[in-house]
Amino acid sequence: MGARHKFKCNKCDYYAQISGKPDFGMRVKTNTYICTKCKEVVDVGIGYTTGRKVKEKYIGKCPICNSDKHLVEWDNKKRPCPKCDGILEKTDGYTILWD
Length: 99
Fold this sequence. Notes:
Elements: E1 2-9, E2 15-18, E3 23-24, E4 28-35, E5 40-48, E6 71-73, E7 88-98
Antiparallel strand pairs: 1-2, 1-7, 3-4, 4-5, 4-6
């Protein structure tokens, strides 16, 4: 079961609900990326965990703009904000479990 957390920028009002690292559910593996086109931090499906596949159109693409050309793996140690030069910090007590 995967988990999503709320990360908030320490300099601007930006926040994202993301895993923040490689993660997986019952069917899909994800990793966290910055989409340079959307200027958003997003979880992107990167593969499958079982033989049951989801639609290929969801794998390797930004879930907002559907592009695969503007994704840069998010550095979960530095945690850069895509909107400013701030750092995204995980907030306490906010978790969504997903499959």
